[in-house]
Design brief:
The complex is a heterotetramer, with 2 copies of chain A (about 325 residues) and 2 copies of chain C (about 325 residues). Chain A is built from 12 helices and 7 strands. Chain A has about 325 residues and is α/β, with parallel strands linked by helices. Chain A has one domain: Rossmann fold, CATH 3.40.50. In chain A, the strands form 2 sheets. Chain A has a 5-stranded parallel sheet with strand order 1-2-3-7-6, with helices on both faces. Chain A has a two-stranded antiparallel sheet with strand order 4-5. Chain A is globular. The termini of chain A are far apart. The relative contact order of chain A is 0.17. Chain C is of the alpha/beta class. Chain C has 2 domains: about 180 residues, Rossmann fold, CATH 3.40.50.970; about 130 residues, Rossmann fold. Helices cover about 40% and strands about 20% of the residues of chain C. In chain C, strand 10, helix 7 and strand 11 form a beta-alpha-beta unit. The longest helix of chain C has 15 residues. Chain C is globular, with a radius of gyration of 19 Å. Classes of the chains: A alpha/beta (about 325), C alpha/beta (about 325). Chains in contact: A-B, A-C, A-D, B-C, B-D, C-D. Chains A and D meet through helix 5 and helix 6 of A and helix 3 and helix 4 of D. The complex binds thiamine diphosphate (TPP) (2 copies) and magnesium ion (2 copies).
Amino acid sequence: MTQAPLLLELYRRMATIRRAEERLSKLFADGEVPGFLHLSIGQEAVPVGVCAALERGDTVASTHRGHGHALAKGMALEGFFAEIMGRASGVCAGRGGSIHVADMSIGMLGANGIVGGGLPLATGSALAHQVKGRPNVAVAFFGDGAMAEGALHECLNLARLWQLPLVFVCENNGWGEFSPHERQFAAKLAALGAAFAIPYEEADGTDVEAVAAAARRRVEPARRGEGPQILECRTPRWRGHYEGDPQKYREPSNLDAARGQDALALAAARLAAQGVDAEALGAIERAITERIEAAVAAARAAAEPDFAAAVAGVYAEARAHA
Amino acid sequence: MTQAPLLLELYRRMATIRRAEERLSKLFADGEVPGFLHLSIGQEAVPVGVCAALERGDTVASTHRGHGHALAKGMALEGFFAEIMGRASGVCAGRGGSIHVADMSIGMLGANGIVGGGLPLATGSALAHQVKGRPNVAVAFFGDGAMAEGALHECLNLARLWQLPLVFVCENNGWGEFSPHERQFAAKLAALGAAFAIPYEEADGTDVEAVAAAARRRVEPARRGEGPQILECRTPRWRGHYEGDPQKYREPSNLDAARGQDALALAAARLAAQGVDAEALGAIERAITERIEAAVAAARAAAEPDFAAAVAGVYAEARAHA
Amino acid sequence: MPETRYSAAINRALADAMAADESVVLFGEDVAAPGGPFAVTRGLLAKFGPLRVRDTPISEAAIAGAAAGAALSGLRPVVEIMFMDFMTFTMDALVNQAAKAHFMFGGQCSVPMVVRAPHGGGLNAGPQHSQCLEAWFAHVPGLKVVVPGNPADAYGLLRAAIDDPNPVVFVEHKGLYGSKGELPESPAPVAIGAARIARAGRDATVVTYGAAVAWSLRAADALAREGIETEVVDLRSVQPWDEATVLESVGRTRRLAIAHEAVSAFGVGAEIAACVSAKAFGRLAAPVARVGAAFMPVPFARSLERACLPGETEIAAAVRRLMAPA
Amino acid sequence: MPETRYSAAINRALADAMAADESVVLFGEDVAAPGGPFAVTRGLLAKFGPLRVRDTPISEAAIAGAAAGAALSGLRPVVEIMFMDFMTFTMDALVNQAAKAHFMFGGQCSVPMVVRAPHGGGLNAGPQHSQCLEAWFAHVPGLKVVVPGNPADAYGLLRAAIDDPNPVVFVEHKGLYGSKGELPESPAPVAIGAARIARAGRDATVVTYGAAVAWSLRAADALAREGIETEVVDLRSVQPWDEATVLESVGRTRRLAIAHEAVSAFGVGAEIAACVSAKAFGRLAAPVARVGAAFMPVPFARSLERACLPGETEIAAAVRRLMAPA
Ligand SMILES: Cc1ncc(C[n+]2csc(CCOP(=O)(O)OP(=O)(O)O)c2C)c(N)n1
Ligand SMILES: Cc1ncc(C[n+]2csc(CCOP(=O)(O)OP(=O)(O)O)c2C)c(N)n1
Ligand SMILES: [Mg+2]
Ligand SMILES: [Mg+2]
């Protein structure tokens, strides 16, 4: 069993994601977040568990539902909120928004508006680790809906042929937008992995300790040069596909079942059993809330992005040539 | 054991393909065939065996190595040679050439310059059979090199989800252009089929009777509405990737092994054992040669394609609207 | 002439086409049971059943490719690609297969398929959910590209697109779905390739399409208050585009601005400007002006997106410059 | 100044770039062990080893996408797409990922990758193996598009493309691989975006790129015999393109023809024609002419392909029309 300090830290990270997204939901409702907003509330154990197995130099390619990946990999709340609120101080200077939060300094290669879009990016990132001889792995997060994209097939194959240090992490929340997974994909990821001879493991995506342990078991062989690995986490989708989605296509029982799986509550119960009292958790929550409110306030106070800078920012500057 | 008359007919079809392609090879060397020429010499048992299980209304999407599929499905030699020689009387009016021979009247949806390009076309054709309630199947021929394209994954999935009357036929000749299959694809097609719960069968692609029997076993369930099927045929690549390819990348032993597998010789030996003598086969061969020479002569005599007709042929004519 | 939403007009065109021809089928991501991501296909599953109206997995390449194969085998598929940005995955099926089959098979077959794809920004949906990529398709012989700007055209052009024996990219605008306009009780198809004079004027011509038609009309209103009478030509389709109508209008006004939401550089407006500049050479009173998005990915933040995308103000300014003495 | 083949110049640029920078890696279908389908990458596997030079499976989408991911993580990948026609599969990786990453991540990163892709006809390779699709990429903010027309430029522009922090589509021409030209002993990079006056002339300007440069020079020779002095401007890159050099030349000659192998409609020439017609308005002696392929898929048969694709004759004819009194 994990020691309380580690679990407590995992709890803190999960709670940060949960509270940050709850705050975003409110900001969205109030018109302070433009565009589409896809929340990962309920799924926090996956990014937090997986990123607990990663090092700073490891890289992560994410999805449209990428807030958890960004924060779990270490993105600062200030740049995060400012970006999603469209400010100049955003981590992407307000040009990307929720679907594109990225922080190269911590190996977070970006949330991605293209379903399956992160798969080839992570494949290439793993190639870079391999060529450069770095002791790092790349992680490709993808949803169950992304399994149907040809990119999965091509990347499983390429990663296996080249024995890349790449961990495929599927966040299987049972839904691709408004359609249940069963109606979208006819294969099991385990069987696909077996077909490519890629080690596969499933973890309970509500149990952050289980995810962290499984992630370590997948990351370490990849890091040692034993080739790609697959981790599939079943995880609940608590919210609509995006904020504002009335979820008419969803049975109330399905929603109830999802809400019954609560990674935070599970971790809190374990912590309680280990003697971490409500008081301690409350203090953590208060600290999180303070940091979030500070980030929101800073974002509100931040400047609008500068259009001239954006115009000048389409191309990276080339070295001068004759 | 198949009765001689059927095997004799299969022999005749295989010999037609072999002699036609040998003739093309000569015409190409003589400068009478423009462009690229991919020959399927040595692989004749696959198209002939598979098409023996098909009916006229069944549809076939082919590959860049599509002469065998075209002739086995019933394309007339005249239009075939004229097309590959670039004449107005070609089955595609000289606009497509070898890589695009097609004959919609017999359900031959075209050879295809795009590796894997036939897979979605056949998927759609199978959908049409299903929607229209036709008792037909579609066949997607593809090479082992095409397995790496995402299209395979997407189409396996779609065909299985919709239980389409679609037979995936892989012609595994061990090579994708200049690279051996093992270095291009890390999975076995059988395992991929299993992952999607699509029935899979392998057949010896040198044995036309074995291919025909296996094809019947795959086509009939698809026709009955039991969903997609996979047939993989190992088959030898006798020639270079295209005519003119010096095959420097290939071990002489690999080439010798391929040339040792001869679908025509195997069928001839069986026919001999069944009492069909060399005389009878000789007569068949002579008839084939005559038809081929007539087709070549006709193509040579045929007009150049008309450019104005081509310009006018970019769009199909729409009905008039207000 | 009841008022109808653009999305409802599309829905009705689909329903009417499906009722008229059993070969018309519909598939795409979330178009059946959920009724479409923008609710455009709502009710069609119930009306026409699961054989003809299908949800697909997230497999854009297979969606487009299967549509081409189905069209070769007797269906008239209408498929939806949820955002035009994802047409990137359909390029092979559309360009190498669908666009070329009629030609390269010597006229043996046609490929009657429609790909519906909403383009455009204005929703702060960011760089990967806002693009206008119609110029790519207009450059491909064998494809048609239709861009309706109002509900009546959405209906009529979609009926024509479905009837058309060629592959048609049917470009909708996300920002127009909620807009209203008149739709006759028994609406008729609208011929692809025929522009519409959306507003007559004698001083300058604005050639435009899609959502930019409304911006142009508003610009024309503003200009009229300054005494500038602007003719607004709604192309309705960009491949083919109605050169005759455009040249006729420019022949009268001698001044042309082209307005679209796509990036100007190498956009649809370039072809029109090149063509008109050549064919009306010596008869223009001012250089042809182009109004389009700034040359950048469509940015997320509200102020950035507003500054990036063109609108009424930019169009009016362009026309004013046309009118300025040289 | 030894004579070097275009393909050898590319090979040398790759070798020199790989020797100069360990981050440069190469992958694509049959580029390593077999040395490339057109033998362009021959010998590089032996020189730089299997870690940096790799054969890939037939997975164009993953090739381009992995290149983008590798570029984000410290490599400078150069990948080959065997025929430009297959770039259809790379559109998402290039357009939605590579082109936008620098911008949409707020300048945090760059995407230094090169996609080499041979375009063009002349081999009777038919509709799916002959296309010139560079206009698509030129329309995408964030991409650069380079089109060398001779060995020295192939070398110099490829070195610059590999050095460039942005994704570059490097367009080669299959018909040029065997062509020869001078390459200095120590060739230098050539700046992307700077055109080259390939031949000076006072009467008319032909703006061109790629294989059409040679056709234009031959046309200029023919025209010179008729007393028409044609200036030939080799753009060398079409995104960005060297507006200043073109405008300067046209300012002198007052006559412009644009020649490329791609289909004219909505092609690269449309942008140049639109831009020059506007910026040199009133100073042109004749309408801007465009020479390009007929609006059709590139047909297979020899006579059809010849009639479809432009060449010296068409370019010369266009210039003669420019010179004709109005
Ligand atoms: C290529 C592409 N196709 C379609 C979409 C629209 N889309 C956005 S999210 C989504 C569902 C994705 O499902 P899944 O991968 O399971 O992720 P989840 O939303 O469940 O986290 C779809 C279809 C897209 N963004 N990109
Ligand atoms: C999309 C695409 N990528 C690459 C090619 C170039 N190419 C033509 S055939 C071929 C090899 C195909 O191998 P396989 O599918 O095994 O067929 P075979 O040639 O062995 O019959 C390649 C790479 C192509 N035509 N299309
Ligand atoms: Mg999901
Ligand atoms: Mg093969």
